[in-house]
Design goal:
heteropentamer; A alpha/beta; B alpha/beta; C mainly alpha; D alpha+beta; E mainly alpha; B: 35% helix; D: alpha+beta; six-stranded mixed β-sheet; 23 strands; binds adenosine-5'-triphosphate; binds magnesium ion; binds nickel (II) ion
């Protein structure tokens, strides 16, 4: 037994990490690797670590297919991790299997991109929010009234007895958020929660999510490729490229002074609705190779 | 009305599109200037796509169009009426004089046909080109939209290209018969921003190149602001505002336009609500 | 707002050694082979569950009472061995292409099947070819004219096709066309005043043409007519409904709208774009339909006295001819798997995404 | 122009094709192994036998290839080849061929081997063969007329694996080529679908009426259509109803066949307490409406007066047949103590005899017995499965038939206690000593008159006390196109194809 | 990233869309195509299929009533052999008499009592067995799934009629055994359908959400999955009733089902073979089969249309009967 090595000692973080917005970390993830298939495997997430503090909103941005969803799913435990550890309030997060999730683990909830598939079409929305309430109760947390949650996400509380198909996409997404929050999670993972929504409701839903989770003191990992929204609601931002985090830091810092060439290209490519007729800068094909390089200085930045 | 050449390549007047029970588009006017990019913005479901389809006479079977859509002839003052046009007229217009690019490049190209075939079949049909000739022209087109290795690309299949490249190919397909009007229905919506930037540059170049007029349908006002010369905003099947770009973005006249802009981060109208930090 | 739904080509997860398509093909072949072994086991177990003594069935009344003859018979056909031994003997022989000797016909089962198979194939192929042509045309029309009168008529027709009991239809057609109107020829593959054409493929129509015997060809073709018609009706119903769905699905695709926006003639759009797009689901259902045709021939063959696999199966089953039953089960199982294998491999031909996965 | 024709039926009569529809039960064309009606039909045309029957009269044996001299004790039979006979390949026939053929049948232990049980075959000289038996065998001449005992070309058969014991492998050869001296030779044989014969060019008798004969496997209903429509010249398996519905374009020959359909009631009390009760058996005999069954079976059918069919020596006269008597039936039923128990009637579901379906007869009997209050439950099964129960004597009630193995009443002694069919009805040795002694007497032989009366006595006793109820001799209906002449039903080989010719 | 539409490598697996075996074949599962995604369960009465569906339902109900009322409305005992044999329709009998002098009309009416309930029973049992096996295979995956799917492969590779023939021969001919034989060959299509649906739903966001909220496997299956697969399964089932009737009567036709003297449509048709001139013996029971089957097919088709207007009738692995 003397040779026994604890899993913790194996997965020592390579560098010290300071939660930037203060507070204890609700969620810690280290060295996450996600692979799909065999012979050879497709490495979708390649050693990503992050921490989210209570009341903090961390955004994850990056191009399509860079591994954002895979990372999110690995964190919550929907996807199997090839390597890496995830801890929620210090407890290891297991992969979702046939066994039911422990009460402690219901402290992490997820909101998905597609509001249409997030709700069971055959059950009343009140019931489904009630699932969240029950999860909170099972954990010994405060209960609540589903109707009240509807009100909080800006819907008519009387709608509890309706079925999902009676709602628009934006409304469904609000219900999904309500269900997640009703479980009183300490950590909320949101995978592109607004990208399927109407342009006009995207911003308001994003803002709603931020306010509700901050209000509840929960940490939130917010995945989006919409950089302008990210800029408005995230405390910190992680930029992913091809399965790895290439840049991270306080949102404004990254925005003002992007260090990684990919981050720069990304920011430069956003067309601004200012009416100036400025064409966004299109990166050349050849630039893409450079985006794979690490820029150590870009990785963990607390100040400008 | 007496000038030799109509300044508008495409003129839509009082266009109504309706199903048996609903009115989708409730009578809109729109003039597409020659050699410019005309942006068509508006919330989802406001009828942007249907307007574009009406130009080609490709509305779903359950819908009918009324009003007038006139396509100016390249030379001379004459124009072709497209609403209620015969099949023969429409077949001659489609792909030949008016071409269209669809939203999702991954679905608008046939996955089982090589790119070369999809680029050349309407050229051969409309322009009567031979196989070799058409391929040569196709190669030049792919070069023009900057698809690498144009010759090799002709025998490849769509899935062998990236999303951005596929959209360029779709644009090349649209440009093949040298149309005067290009209807681009949200051509960048499916793309990453870095890829989108490249496609937007391409559209700009095409419009600047001369005779091509582009109707750019998008709900992304950022995109609109970047490339459109003229902007029309639709809501619930009606035009609420139509103005040159600068004017629309800096001094919108309509409340709806204003509220749209206000919801946008980064625009000059951005609200700094207390919910945002 | 940009939605990142760009589709990228599937990345290769192919093996170090083989092209992914080859691996896929190989895997398919191997699973098919495993299934064949499964089929042999099932047939073997099932046929040996059958009560009643094959000896009694195979030997005449008198002979079955003579213990010496019975013992001799059992030894000849290996029936005196334990079942497990019998099974492995069977498998071993199978590898040498030996399916045993039929206890009813006293011929090697392989020979019997080789003779019966072309007869069944002739109607099954005839039916499938006809059904595919008619089904694809009608299905495409129904999809194209969706909601119009012709669509509704085709819906009723194809559902009716699916609902007709073939055994009854066969009888009725036989009654009307042969018995009453004397338009169709009688049962069997060939009128008795014709001799079988020189054996090349075993399909009489083809062989007759190869031999240049036009009148034999016509006679064989006229005998094919009713059985093929009966089998076709069901498959046409099936295919029409399915092709309609598949085509509707494709008509909804952007690439079809794009093709129309290019101003291509309707015929080109249908042939080059729509049907090509629908080809893979159609192919699958054709494969399935062919499989069900093969076993569906039993009833039709019974009525038209068609000396095919179906008649052979029925004869073998009613005489408890174990080698015969196992042979038929194996043959049809293998054919079914083969058809599916071919269908699977054709996907590769039809879909560059499969073929060119790199 | 330039096309060849696959049609064989050309204008000149020599190659005229005769098409016969027959529901096949063909297992082989090898005479040494063949014992099914279709095989008899085929082999009768391919092979000649030492003795034979004239036309349809099977009660009298006549000379075939040979003439017969029989000892008075019916134990020694001397057969002398008459004239010169040649096989289809031109080889002359000798006594060696006869000896080989008969010894092969015995040695093969095939289906027809029983025909020559206990017979020793010896060659006397090149023209003469002597058959001897240990016990009197008055039936032997009739047996020798069976096509299974056709004479083979021993040279050819031996060359192709033929022996006179179980090592024989000539069947395969004989299924492709015939080696006989009959009027036809085998062209092609497909056990499942059709047999094609062509005229034997070396036949020493009159050339047969057709150049080519196609016997095709066709079910009864289709046969009717075929013969009416003209695509078949002869239909052999028509039911009475089908035959009577035929139009004028076809000539129908209807005769009762030699098959006897009978009902058996198990006498073994451990199988059934009900059917083993003699009063119950009696009641059933009296309850059945025989005339109704005959009419259901249709044209040509006759009630079987006893187990021996009417055309054979020893058959019961019609006056002795069983008749319906409902009052007696009810009385006997009451006497038997039957209380409405359900009695199972087993029968082969897939047998159709001369166009009569067993299920039809069974259903009719069920319905008739219901009239007097007997509940019958039908239990059909494929013959392959049901045969087992029948042979093991475990059927409560069974509906079966017996076709003569050879046209002699001694073949019917099996319907007595302790014998094959008797045992199938649970009738053990000694169960009815009176009947057993009548059977012994009938077996002894004697003059035709003596045999006739002894078999009559036996059958009368069987009808009164036996567990068997003879029901029908189904009609054999042969429909022939008007152009075909010479159609005569024969109980052994159905028809002699060689006797047919075109008008 | 979203995959191209309906990519599926194995056409007979109801596996969820996604790359498998390193290749993507754009495939549409014909079985699953029969099964619409369960959309809003609203019947569109305006659609043309609805009138057909209503007609079908009416005919089906008509036959079910006949089945129930046969003892009352049939003019004769279906087993009584008291009429002249082979009498043509007309004079006293609506549909003539058969070779034993039974009234064909009465037998056709009584026949409804035999075939329809058994077909329904067969479908219900197939659905139950198939749904249980499919759900377990789909939800628990791995070895369970592998074994279950290989078994269905086997059964499906085996020719339906011949398998049924052998089973019926092995167990003896009776209607119960015919149902058993048919059951053995017909449950796999439901197992596959259910498995495919469960597999698809298992990874769906709402099921995962439920699990994140602490649902047990049983609860997930019962609350989130089961209600969402009943629709497609019901549609397949309703389309399958016709197939079941065809299969059962086909087996009886071959003499492997109903025993005489039962008035069963398939065996009545087979009686006609022996009495070809008496066309009425076979034509009427055949028409009965046809109308019942077509009625159920209309209903199933309309049902499927109402649930998913795009898909069309298809019965995978079905048998030509
Ligand atoms: N179940 C899966 N099996 C195989 N490969 C997968 C699977 N899911 C994702 N991938 C692959 O992993 C890579 C990362 O995918 P992921 O969904 O995490 O990207 P993403 O950043 O969320 O993209 P998007 O912005 O489009 O949602 C992609 O290349 C994708 O093709
Ligand atoms: N096939 C159809 N039949 C009937 N109505 C339709 C059909 N297709 C679209 N519609 C309706 O037409 C209206 C206009 O649709 P359209 O696609 O033109 O909107 P859009 O402005 O392009 O929206 P988006 O930004 O979402 O693409 C919508 O209300 C839609 O529901
Ligand atoms: Mg994602
Ligand atoms: Mg649109
Ligand atoms: Ni010629």
């Amino acid at each position: 037994m003397s040779e026994h090595v604890t899993s913790e000692s194996v997965s020592q973080p390579e560098r010290e990490r300071e939660p930037l917005s203060g507070g204890r970390p609700v969620l810690e993830a280290e060295g996450i690797v996600v692979e799909y298939g065999r012979r050879p495997a497709l490495r979708a997430v390649d050693g990503v670590g992050l921490a989210v503090a209570a009341g903090e909103v961390v955004a994850l941005v990056g191009e399509s297919g860079c591994g954002k969803s895979s990372l999110a799913r690995a964190i919550v435990g929907i996807e199997k991790r090839k390597a890496g550890v995830v801890r929620l309030n210090g407890d290891d997060v297991p992969t979702l299997g046939l066994r039911r999730r422990s009460a402690a683990m219901t402290g992490m909830q997820m909101v998905f991109q597609d509001p249409n598939s997030s709700l069971n079409p055959r059950r009343r929305v009140g019931d489904q929010i009630g699932d969240g309430v029950r999860a909170a109760l099972a954990r010994g947390d405060r209960g609540s009234d589903p109707a009240d949650w509807l009100r909080r996400v800006g819907l008519d509380p009387a709608m509890v007895s309706r079925f999902p198909h009676e709602f628009s996409g934006g409304q469904k997404q609000r219900i999904a958020i309500a269900r997640a929050l009703a479980a009183r999670p300490g950590m909320l993972v949101a995978d592109e929660p607004i990208s399927a929504l109407d342009a006009s409701t995207q911003t308001s839903v994003a803002a709603l999510m931020r306010s509700l989770s901050v209000e509840a003191g929960a940490g939130m990992l917010f995945i989006s490729h919409d950089l302008s929204v990210v800029r408005r609601i995230a405390d910190r931002v992680l930029v992913m490229y091809q399965g790895r985090v290439v840049e991270s830091g306080v949102t404004e810092t990254v925005w003002q002074n992007p260090l990684h060439p990919y981050t720069r290209a990304l920011l430069a490519a956003i067309p601004l609705p200012d009416g100036a007729g400025r064409l966004p800068v299109a990166p050349a094909e050849t630039d893409r190779a450079a985006w794979l390089d690490d820029v150590p200085a870009a990785l963990e930045r607390t100040t400008v | 009305m007496s000038s030799s050449i109509d300044p508008a390549a495409l003129t839509i007047e009082g266009l109504r599109i309706a199903t048996r029970s609903h009115t989708i588009v409730g009578g809109i006017d729109l003039a597409l200037k020659r050699g410019g990019i005309h942006g068509l913005a508006g919330e989802s479901g406001s009828g942007k796509t249907m307007t574009a389809l009406a130009v080609l006479g490709l509305l779903p079977g359950s819908m009918t169009a009324s009003g007038s859509i006139r396509l100016a002839d390249a030379e001379g003052p004459a124009s072709t009426e497209l609403v209620g046009a015969s099949r023969g007229v429409l077949q001659g217009v489609r792909g030949r004089r008016v071409a269209m690019v669809f939203q999702d490049p991954s679905t608008s190209l046939h996955p089982q046909l090589p790119v070369g075939r999809q680029l050349t079949d309407h050229m051969r049909h409309h322009l009567g080109l031979g196989k070799a000739e058409a391929r040569q022209k196709a190669e030049a087109l792919l070069d023009r939209v900057r698809v690498p290795d144009a010759r090799g690309a002709l025998s490849k299949y769509p899935h062998q290209f990236s999303g951005g490249q596929r959209q360029r190919i779709a644009i090349a397909v649209a440009l093949a018969c040298d149309p005067t009007v290009l209807l681009a229905d949200e051509p960048t919506t499916a793309l990453d921003v870095t890829v989108q930037a490249g496609v937007l540059q391409l559209l700009r170049e095409l419009a600047d190149g001369g005779d091509l007029s582009i109707l750019l349908v998008t709900h992304d006002l950022g995109v609109m602001s970047a490339v459109a010369d003229e902007v029309t905003v639709m809501r619930q099947g009606l035009v609420v505002e139509s103005a040159p770009r600068e004017q629309l973005f800096t001094s919108p006249q309509d409340d709806y336009t204003r509220s749209l802009l206000a919801a946008l981060p980064g625009s000059s109208f951005e609200q700094t609500g207390e919910e945002a930090r | 707002m940009t939605r990142t739904t760009a589709v990228r080509p599937p990345r290769s997860r192919g093996g170090r050694t083989a092209h992914p398509f080859l691996r896929y093909a190989l895997r398919r072949v191997l699973t098919s082979l495993l299934l064949v072994v499964g089929v042999t086991l099932v047939t073997f177990v099932l046929t040996n569950l059958v009560p009643g003594d094959p000896v009694a069935a195979a030997l005449g009344q008198r002979a079955a009472e003579d213990p010496a003859i019975v013992a001799q018979f059992r030894a000849t056909y290996g029936l005196d061995q334990p079942l497990v031994v019998q099974y492995f003997t069977y498998l071993g022989n199978l590898l040498h292409g030996d399916l045993g000797v039929s206890t009813t016909t006293h011929n090697p089962v392989v020979d019997d099947l080789a003779k019966a198979l072309p007869a069944t194939l002739e109607i099954a192929l005839g039916a499938i070819v006809l059904s595919v042509i008619i089904g694809v045309v009608l299905g495409t029309i129904a999809a194209y004219r969706r909601g119009k009168a012709s669509d509704h008529v085709l819906r009723v027709v194809s559902l009716a096709g699916l609902s007709v009991p073939t055994f009854w239809l066969a009888l009725v057609l036989y009654y009307v066309f042969y018995f009453q109107l004397h338009i169709a020829p009688g049962s069997g593959r060939l009128s008795s005043d014709f001799s079988t054409p020189p054996h090349v493929t075993g399909l009489y129509t083809v062989d007759a043409l190869l031999a240049g015997q036009l009148d034999t060809f016509l006679d064989a073709a006229s005998h094919l007519f009713l059985p093929v018609l009966v089998l076709t009706l069901y498959t046409v119903g099936l295919l029409t409904r399915f092709v309609r769905t598949a085509v509707l699905e494709i008509l909804d695709q952007d690439y079809v709208r794009a093709a129309r926006a290019k101003g291509l003639p309707t015929r080109t759009v249908i042939w080059s774009y729509v049907l090509r797009g629908a080809s893979i689901p159609i192919l699958t259902v054709v494969g399935l339909a062919f499989g069900s045709l093969l076993s569906g021939t039993v009833l039709v063959e019974a009525i038209f006295a068609w000396p095919g696999i179906g008649s052979y199966a029925y004869q073998a089953a009613s005489h408890l001819d174990l080698p015969g039953i196992m042979g038929v089960g194996l043959l049809i199982g293998v054919m079914y798997l083969l058809v599916n294998l071919i269908v699977d491999l054709l996907y590769g031909v039809l879909d560059p995404r499969v073929r060119l996965a790199s | 122009a330039g096309c060849s024709s696959g049609r064989t039926d050309t204008a000149d009569g020599g190659t005229k094709t005769l098409t016969i529809d027959k529901a096949f039960d063909l297992k082989t064309a090898d005479p040494g192994r063949m014992y099914e009606p279709t095989g008899q039909l085929v082999d009768k045309a391919l092979y000649e036998t030492l003795l034979t029957f004239e036309g349809g009269d099977v009660s009298k044996v006549v000379d075939g290839l040979a003439s017969l001299e029989q000892s008075a004790d019916a134990k020694t039979f001397t057969l002398t080849l008459k004239g010169d006979h040649t096989f289809s390949d031109g080889t002359p026939m000798t006594a060696d061929d006869v000896v080989f053929s008969l010894q092969r049948v015995i040695g093969l232990k095939g289906n027809p081997s029983f025909l020559l049980d206990g017979v020793t075959v010896t060659k006397k000289d090149d023209k003469t063969v002597v058959l001897t038996t240990a016990t009197p065998t008055p039936a032997l001449p009739a047996i020798l007329a069976n096509p299974a005992l056709g004479i083979l070309n021993s040279t050819v058969v031996k060359e192709n694996g033929g022996t006179t014991d179980e090592t024989d492998t000539a069947e395969k050869f004989l299924n492709t080529t015939s080696a006989g001296s009959g009027p036809y030779v085998l062209d092609t044989l497909d056990l499942a679908s059709q047999v094609v014969l062509k005229a034997n060019e070396n036949y020493d008798g009159d050339a047969p009426g057709y150049g080519r004969v196609v016997i095709q496997n066709v079910e009864g209903a289709t046969q009717k259509i075929n013969v009416e429509g003209g695509s078949a010249d002869l239909a052999l398996d028509l039911s009475g109803t089908q035959a009577s519905a035929l139009g004028d374009s076809v000539a129908v020959t209807s005769d009762p066949s030699a098959n006897v359909i009978f009902l058996l009631l198990n006498q073994n009390p451990s199988v059934s307490a009900v059917t083993s009760n003699p009063d119950f058996v009696k009641a059933v005999k009296e309850a059945i409406d025989y005339d109704d069954l005959v009419s259901i079976a249709g044209t040509g059918t006759a009630q079987a007066a006893g187990v021996v069919p009417s055309m054979l020596l020893g058959a019961l006269p019609e006056s002795a047949k069983l008749t319906q008597d409902l009052d007696a039936a009810k009385a006997d039923l009451a006497k038997s103590g039957y209380a409405g128990e359900s009695v199972t009637l087993n029968f082969p579901s897939d047998i159709s005899l001369n166009g009569i379906d067993f299920p039809t007869i069974a259903q009719r009997i069920q319905s008739q017995l219901k009239e007097v209050g007997i509940t019958v439950e039908l239990a059909p099964a494929p013959v392959a499965t049901e045969l087992d129960a029948y042979r093991n004597g475990t059927e409560t009630m069974g509906l079966w038939y017996w076709g003569p193995d050879y046209p002699d009443p001694s073949d019917y002694l099996v319907f007595t206690p302790g014998n094959v069919v008797g045992l199938r009805s649970g009738w053990a040795e000694g169960a009815n000593p009176a009947i057993s002694s009548l059977a012994d007497a009938a077996a002894a032989g004697g003059s035709d008159e003596e045999r006739q009366s002894r078999f009559e006595d036996l059958q009368k006793a069987l009808n009164t006390d036996g567990p068997f109820i003879p029901l029908l001799q189904p009609g054999n209906n042969i429909a022939a196109a008007k152009s075909v002449t010479g159609v005569v039903y024969n109980a052994v080989w159905t028809i002699d194809i060689a006797a047919l010719s075109a008008k | 990233m979203s995959e191209p539409r309906s990519p599926r490598a194995d056409p007979r697996d109801g596996a969820p869309a996604g790359p498998r075996d390193g290749v993507q074949a754009g495939m549409l599962d014909p079985i699953e195509a029969a099964a619409p995604r369960w959309r809003r369960p609203r019947l569109r009465l305006g659609r043309w299929s609805a009138p057909l569906g209503i007609l079908g339902a009416a005919v089906a109900v008509f036959w079910i009533l006949i089945a129930l009322l046969a003892p009352v409305i049939a003019p004769h005992d279906p087993l009584a052999q008291d009429l002249p044999i082979l009498q043509a329709p007309g004079e006293g009998t609506l549909m003539g008499t058969d070779a034993l002098g039974r009234d064909v009309f009465s037998r056709v009416l009584w026949g409804a009592q035999v075939t329809i309930p058994l077909a329904l029973l067969l479908v219900v049992l197939s659905v139950l067995i198939g749904a249980v096996v499919g759900s377990v295979a789909g939800f628990f995956g791995r070895a369970v799934d592998e074994v279950a799917m290989r078994v269905t492969d086997l059964v499906m590779a085996f020719p339906t009629v011949i398998l049924a023939m052998v089973i019926a021969a092995a167990l003896g001919a009776s209607l119960v055994n015919a149902v058993l034989a048919a059951l053995i060959v017909s449950w796999p299509s439901y197992a596959r359908l259910t498995r495919g649906l469960v597999l698809g739903l298992r990874s769906s966001n709402y099921v995962v959400s439920g699990q994140l909220l602490g649902f047990s496997a049983v609860r997930s299956l019962g609350r989130d999955i089961a209600p969402n697969i009943v629709g497609p399964v019901l549609v397949l089932a309703s389309l399958d009733i016709g197939t079941a009737i065809l299969l059962l009567s086909g087996l009886s036709f071959l003499g492997l089902g109903a025993k005489p003297p039962t008035a069963e449509w398939g065996s009545m048709v087979s009686d006609a073979i022996k009495n070809f001139d008496a066309w009425w013996i076979g034509v009427f029971p055949g028409l009965a089969i046809l109308t019942v089957v077509i009625a159920f097919n209309f209903v199933g088709d309309a049902l499927r249309d109402a649930l998913d207007p795009k898909s069309a009738t298809i019965k995978g692995g079905g048998t030509t009967l």
